[in-house]
């Protein structure tokens, strides 16, 4: 089965013209492009092959919530995937309770949710077992009370926090070990074929090491997704 390669542009680029150019060069089957909200409409008119994603969504759909974006607004622009619980949002104070509400809302709306989990370096220093315990706890908290029926649209991205944007990707065999634990946790929740991506300093140089593993269903790519030639090389391994 083809793997899913998700481009998380974060708060880049600074101009719409650059975003449009980047989208044209990244428009490949099997890719999900998650631009900043302000570019979603323009990019929805460009993509022919890649799917459209968003980097977050609010847990209420419409109403008096200054600065927030709801699921209907995203869906009506053709957004099919939404990243939830990215560590950069958690670092700003997003709690598991909030992540849980956002997941519930996104999954109920019919969107695919990409839930990010992963441990800090202080945890990984204690070993892979500690990291497994950490992500298991995070998953259980984030998925509380979400009906089994909705979980079939869930995708998990394992992103060790210390590997994000540092150029220091995890060792593929360690990620595989942790991803196997994540899959076991998801299977226990009744998800029949859980999908788990790896994220954290994926580049054209290391992509194959991750994407050639049967346990890893794709990649969540930050920095390298802003460089079209890099991103296209990563896509070749899907
Ligand atoms: P990175 O970011 O590829 O720049 O490490 C990954 C992410 O934050 O999803």
Largest sheet: 8 strands, parallel, barrel
Note the run of SSEs as H and E. EHEHEHEHHEHHEHEHEH
Q: If you compute it from the alpha carbons, what radius of gyration comes out, rounded to the nearest whole angstrom?
A: 17 Å
- Portion in helices: 25-40%
**Strand portion, in percent?**
15-25%
Q: What hetero molecules are in the model?
A: 2-phosphoglycolic acid
Strand sequence of the main sheet, in spatial order? 1-2-3-4-5-6-7-8
Mean pLDDT: 98
What low-confidence regions span 5 or more consecutive residues with pLDDT below 50?
A: none
Count helical runs: 10
The helix/strand class is alpha/beta
Alpha-carbon distance between the termini? Answer: 9 Å
Overall 3D geometry? globular
Query: How many runs of DSSP E, i.e. beta strands?
Result: 8
Write a brief structural summary.
The chain is an alpha/beta fold and 238 residues long. It has helices spanning 16-26, 37-44, 71-75, 87-90, 96-108, 121-124, 128-142, 172-188, 207-211, 228-235; strands at 4-8, 31-34, 51-54, 81-84, 112-117, 154-158, 195-199, 218-221.
Explain this structure.
This protein has helices at residues 16-26, 37-44, 71-75, 87-90, 96-108, 121-124, 128-142, 172-188, 207-211, 228-235, and strands spanning 4-8, 31-34, 51-54, 81-84, 112-117, 154-158, 195-199, 218-221. It has an eight-stranded parallel β-barrel, surrounded by five helices. The longest helix is centred in the last third of the chain and has 17 residues, at 172-188. Helix 1 packs across helix 2 (37-44). It has ten helices and eight strands. The model has no long low-confidence stretch (mean pLDDT 98). The chain is of the alpha/beta class and 238 residues long. The radius of gyration is 17 Å and the shape is globular. The structure holds 2-phosphoglycolic acid. 2-phosphoglycolic acid (PGA) binds at residues 8, 159, 164-165, 199-202, 220-224.
């Amino acid at each position: 089965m083809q793997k899913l390669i998700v481009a998380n542009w974060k708060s880049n680029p600074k101009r719409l013209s650059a975003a449009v150019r980047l989208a044209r060069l990244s428009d490949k089957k099997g890719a999900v492009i998650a631009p900043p909200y302000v570019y979603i409409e323009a990019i929805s008119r460009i993509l022919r092959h890649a799917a459209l994603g968003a980097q977050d969504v609010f847990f209420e759909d419409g109403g008096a919530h200054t600065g927030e974006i709801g699921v209907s607004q995203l869906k009506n622009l053709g957004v099919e995937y939404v990243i939830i619980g990215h560590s950069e949002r958690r670092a700003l104070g997003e709690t598991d309770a909030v992540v849980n509400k956002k997941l519930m809302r996104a999954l109920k709306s019919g969107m695919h949710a990409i839930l990010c989990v992963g441990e800090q370096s202080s945890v990984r220093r204690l070993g892979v077992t500690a990291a497994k315990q950490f992500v298991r706890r995070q998953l259980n908290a984030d998925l509380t009370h979400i009906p089994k029926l909705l979980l079939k649209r869930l995708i998990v991205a394992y992103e060790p926090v210390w590997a994000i944007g540092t150029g220091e990707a995890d060792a593929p065999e360690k990620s595989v070990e942790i991803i196997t634990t994540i899959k076991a946790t998801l299977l226990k929740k009744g998800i029949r074929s859980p999908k788990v991506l790896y994220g954290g300093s994926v580049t054209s140089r290391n992509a194959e090491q991750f994407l050639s593993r049967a346990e890893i269903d794709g990649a969540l790519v930050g920095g390298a997704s802003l460089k079209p030639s890099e991103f296209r090389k990563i896509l070749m391994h899907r």
